[in-house]
Amino acid sequence: MKKIAIIGDYNQNEESHCLIMESIKEAAEEIQGELKAQWIMSDALDVFREHLKLFDGFWFSPGSPYKDAKNVLSAIQYARENGVPALGTCAGFQHMVIEFARNVLGLYRADSEENDTECEDAVIVKLPHTLMNQKEQLEISDSNSILARTVGGNKFIGEYRCNYGFHEAYRSAFQNSDMIAAIVETKNGYLRGFELKAHPFFVGTLFIPQLDFRGDSSYRIIKSFVRVVLDMGKYVPVLDNEAADYEGTCSCTQKLRLTDSGRI
């Protein structure tokens, strides 16, 4: 049975958290696969390779600052370097940007202003205007990307619950990397998401696709993520991560038994 780890600090009163499990369940039912979704708090995540390789996909959830951002960044690096499908929404997107800046662009002190107000390379900053409960018209830069093919075009609506976003001063360094397949941006050119090249599925979105639950726009991104997880064959991890200070425990687990397990 395939397994998705949802990494983040679960809050039962947070709509975007509750909708993650529902979204995975709905998408898997439509695809007719079988998978298990497990929520792991950031400060309870075991980042030893032997633990991370138990999962076939990672969803890095909204809700920042994380209790243990170091653990989250280690899991993101593992997923990126080992070809494990990964989706980061809101805070998950922000930490995907941080990990990429540190380990790909060489900005070793990159961080978010929310994590470190004196950060030397703040690739995530407080937005001049809040995006809390806001929607925007968005455009995908490459019509041949996974994102564009997933949403059925290069334009769609994104919905937010955030006050922090990408620091545009780092736009050229980020976008000009030969590892970026596509970006998602506003009509005014503000970066709101990205997709990596040469990876089965590595997508970060500042907008929250689960808020489009059962919709026909950004919600399709979740369905694409779940499909890739179910279709993935075995992979062999090659990244030796350092051990974290915490042992992994699960705060929320949901087993999704569906009509056809033939993909597994």
Give a brief rundown of this model:
With 264 residues, the protein is of the alpha/beta class.
Overview features:
264 residues; alpha/beta; ten-stranded mixed beta sheet; three-stranded mixed beta sheet; 27% helix; globular; disordered C terminus
Structural class computed from helices and strand pairing: alpha/beta
What's the end-to-end separation, in Å? 6 Å
Helix content: 25-40%
Strand order in the sheet with the most strands: 8-7-10-11-12-4-3-1-2-13
Order of helices and strands: EHEHEHEHEEEHEEHEEEHE
Q: How much of the polypeptide forms β-strand, as a percent range? A: 15-25%
Average pLDDT score? 88
Largest sheet: 10 strands, mixed
pLDDT below 50 for ≥5 consecutive residues: which ranges?
234-264
- Tell how many strands the DSSP assignment holds: 13
Radius of gyration: 17 Å
Morphology: globular
Number of helices: 7
